[in-house]
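haha ok so turns out i had the wrong file open the whole time. this is the CORRECT one, sorry everyone. sequence first:
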Amino acid sequence: MNYLHTMIRVTDPDATIRFFNLLGLNEVRRMENEKGRFTLIFLATPEDMNAPGERAKAEVELTYNWDPEEYGSGRNFGHLAYRVDNIYDTCQRLADGGVTINRPPRDGNMAFVKTPDGISIELLQVGDALPPAEPWASMENTGTW
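then structure:
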């Protein structure tokens, strides 16, 4: 058995793709379904990519339904998690891109952010936690995650 993807519904595909690009994921394929009135966009990290045109080892599927819908907070979904090489650099890149760091990496190990549609993303440091560093060490939580 192989893990394939996690699907999240999005209301603004461009904003969500920009968010995931800041995290380091790129679009690997897209499918438009006129009859069903939806678009599927698959994203993956470079490390998970296979040959062009093939499924990546692990993907995030963005489902965009052309007819507007309310999805609620999605809190029952939980979160997606990614291991990152440097949690401080990743959080800084996201913050510089306009993303709110909901749970800063005060411990040098873990942070949470949200997609434009409110899906929680957990970021975990590769290996041991980094030493506490400012501005992260004294930064308060913002909102929920």
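The chain has a mean pLDDT of 92.
again sry for the mixup
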